[in-house]
UniProtKB/TrEMBL annotation:
<dbReference type="InterPro" id="IPR001206">
    <property type="entry name" value="Diacylglycerol_kinase_cat_dom"/>
</dbReference>
<keyword id="KW-1208">Phospholipid metabolism</keyword>
<keyword id="KW-0443">Lipid metabolism</keyword>
<keyword id="KW-0479">Metal-binding</keyword>
<dbReference type="InterPro" id="IPR050187">
    <property type="entry name" value="Lipid_Phosphate_FormReg"/>
</dbReference>
<protein>
    <submittedName>
        <fullName>Diacylglycerol kinase</fullName>
        <ecNumber>2.7.1.107</ecNumber>
    </submittedName>
</protein>
<dbReference type="Pfam" id="PF19279">
    <property type="entry name" value="YegS_C"/>
</dbReference>
<dbReference type="Pfam" id="PF00781">
    <property type="entry name" value="DAGK_cat"/>
</dbReference>
<keyword id="KW-0547">Nucleotide-binding</keyword>
<dbReference type="GO" id="GO:0004143">
    <property type="term" value="F:ATP-dependent diacylglycerol kinase activity"/>
</dbReference>
<dbReference type="GO" id="GO:0008654">
    <property type="term" value="P:phospholipid biosynthetic process"/>
</dbReference>
<dbReference type="GO" id="GO:0005886">
    <property type="term" value="C:plasma membrane"/>
</dbReference>
<keyword id="KW-0460">Magnesium</keyword>
<keyword id="KW-0444">Lipid biosynthesis</keyword>
<dbReference type="InterPro" id="IPR017438">
    <property type="entry name" value="ATP-NAD_kinase_N"/>
</dbReference>
<keyword id="KW-0067">ATP-binding</keyword>
<keyword id="KW-0594">Phospholipid biosynthesis</keyword>
Amino acid sequence: MKKYVLIYNPVAGDAKFKTRLDEVIEYLQAADGIVIPFRTRLKGDVRAFVSQSKGFATAGLLVAGGDGTVHEVINAMLAESVDVPLGIIPSGTCNDFASHLSLGKDLAGCLRAVTGGQWRTVDVGMVNGEYFLNVASAGLLTSVAHSVDTALKNTLGRMAYYFKGLGELPSFRSLRVRITADGRTINDDILLFLVMNSGLVGSFPTLAPQAKIDDGKLDLLIVNKCSIPELMGLFFSIFSGRHIASSHIRHLQAANIYIECDEPVESDLDGELGPLLPLAISTVTNKLKVFRLT
Ligand SMILES: Nc1ncnc2c1ncn2[C@@H]1O[C@H](COP(=O)(O)OP(=O)(O)OP(=O)(O)O)[C@@H](O)[C@H]1O
């Protein structure tokens, strides 16, 4: 019998995943599996559960939630040296990393990836001692994911993010940053930066077209200071991938990135509140396995 644990966030996305637990149990049992479910509550309880369930979850660890829940789970797995594949059941608002893996809202499809037993190794990022799976960022729009009210997210979904983001535009000032990326130094007035693993962030699929989740590198995308009309133009050019060529954008790939700013700026890691700048970011390879579609 294959043994799994399932960590699920009851309030992620539209808060509906919890009504489908029976389907998950039925699917896994039909494939000779047994699962212990764990309902997330407060920050930190995931790590305690992962530590205690270590000897049980020999076939895999499953997570149902959004990018924030996956973030907590991978941090717990890596801190506790849990070396089993991770199965992602996307049920959050954006689910960027899962979308990059082509895991959609089809529950049976995600479970098929788990019971199929095929996995791949993916990179993770590390910033000031904490792991991130998809993105570390700071500046304009980057606090939106962790500052939007959960109830609003449950009802409006992604629109809640977009409304909140639009509200930030008129009052935002640029940040003076110094960035060192694999020995190259950049001094710029910027609106925001994103350090990406998959390149799929905020449901925009093409933010870093060259990004790969197993190349040992992270993709740094900087939006330099510009006017609101220029920013809006940039925003629309993302859909065609033309933003990369814009004079307001700087894009590079690096394995080690150090970002500092004169002000105490907050960062965001996978949609959760991250540490204040400065950020010492590096790529960690060959530490995390994820189930993949066959
Ligand atoms: N039982 C709970 N009640 C309230 N909040 C919870 C509970 N369990 C987890 N959380 C919080 O939910 C947040 C993570 O949500 P998650 O990011 O997975 O979903 P989302 O915000 O809907 O999706 P996404 O990040 O993909 O846009 C974390 O901040 C975590 O502390």
